[in-house]
Design a protein that fits this description.
single chain, alpha+beta, two-stranded antiparallel ribbon, globular
Length: about 325
């Protein structure tokens, strides 16, 4: 019932967005400005699963043969400007997504939070006890968001969720409402950080929609594109942190976005890279190891950019 209701809400939201775009763009020949939010939502949700094979045979592109040997259990690779799917494997299958969940937590914090607020690490949010924040620490919201996303800090996510939602249950309701708004039909959130929970799941295609929507927020994009940052605490101590996404330094053109790991989810990575005028988004789930999530993402992204080069060549 829960999944059916979410699907219905998602469908209604999508139809509303599409109707809004049509009605604002074609009003009896008059030029009417498109609502920026509708434009953002439409672009983030745009998917084209059929065009590629009508133009070229992607199986003939160098690197295609490597895709079948990857350990990742699911992925989807998309050209952002067209929504064209360049490669996918079980992209709509619901799965645990580990800390990719924090993308939604970050988005809601940016949309609903006051960046100058003080957020404290209290006993009721000091749950995972496996990250850099400690009981009694206090941060400015803006700094704690950076710490959560770069360090993938589980207790920072709980603290942000409580501060924004009043409690984590209310915040999870906000997460699920936003997921429905984005049309994430194979998604349900049960916590703000992606710790193992059978009720916290998504799919590669849904996470891709979330990633494309989030990256259209310049503040979000700046956060996940940061390699290193010195995080100040309210008591004037400092915490130097480094982004867990090594592709930011290792892969040419990488602009983000988030790592994830639990034993339930395996090793996950949502990434985005820009080369030669093309921006590709990749969500990879369930890779065998921490290193393979990066090496396999590189293989898929390299293949995708070769596809785009061939498409550009054919269009000339």
């Amino acid at each position: 019932m829960k999944t059916t209701l979410s699907s219905l809400i998602a469908t209604l939201c999508w139809l509303t967005a599409v109707f809004s775009v049509v009605s604002t763009c074609s009003c009896k020949g008059r030029e009417v400005a498109v609502d920026p939010e509708v434009e953002r939502l439409t672009a983030a949700c745009r998917i084209d699963s059929t065009t590629l094979r009508t133009i070229l045979n992607p199986d003939s592109i160098e690197g295609f043969e490597q895709l079948s040997s990857l350990s990742a259990q699911a992925w989807i690779l998309v050209d952002d400007s067209t929504g064209m799917i360049l490669s996918q494997k079980y992209a709509d299958e619901p799965r645990a997504i580990a800390s990719l969940t924090k993308m939604m937590t970050c988005l809601l914090a940016l949309e609903n939070g006051v960046m100058t607020d003080t957020v404290s690490i209290t006993e009721d949010v000091f749950i995972a006890k496996d990250s850099r924040v400690k009981l009694g620490d206090a941060y400015v919201m803006d700094d704690l968001i950076y710490e959560m996303m770069l360090q993938s800090d589980n207790d920072a996510a709980y603290a942000i969720a409580k501060h924004i939602g009043g409690d984590t249950l209310r915040f999870c309701d906000m997460m699920n409402q936003k997921a429905a708004y984005l049309g994430m039909k194979n998604t349900h959130f049960a916590n703000p950080n992606g710790m193992p929970n059978y009720e916290n799941y998504s799919s590669a295609s849904d996470v891709l929609t979330l990633a494309r929507y989030c990256m259209r927020d310049s503040v979000f994009a700046a956060i996940v594109g940061t390699v290193e940052k010195d995080i100040p605490l309210i008591d004037r101590r400092h915490m130097p942190i480094k982004n867990t996404n090594v592709l930011l330094e290792k892969y040419e053109g990488c602009i983000g976005i988030k790592t994830g790991f639990t034993r339930m989810a395996g090793n996950c990575l949502a990434s985005a890279a820009r080369r030669n005028g093309s921006t590709l988004y990749l969500v990879l789930l369930g890779s065998r190891s921490m290193s393979s999530r990066f090496s396999e993402s590189i293989i898929i992204l390299d293949y995708g950019f070769r596809v785009m080069e061939e498409l550009n060549h054919l269009s000339q």
